[in-house]
Sequence to fold (89 residues):
Amino acid sequence: MGMFKEYQRKQTSIRAVQFTNENKDMVFNELTGNYVADFEDGKPILKVTTIHGDIAIVRLGDWVAEEPKPGYYYPIDEEYFKNNFVNEE
Fold:
């Protein structure tokens, strides 16, 4: 048995929006804090600042999630998002 025990992640909720080609301008205008719109291989991306001060890249199809502290965000890959989150509204 040993010292290691099994733990489950607590149920959490987040506020997020998917970054798509159709809503990229609206998502950009909704952000606050330090962020930059840019291009990577000719496609729009967002560079957002995480709560840890890192710059994270949000690509088309990714989800932009709000950190607990206003003005900070982090990206979530589409595949991970659809396997781990559901809309509670």
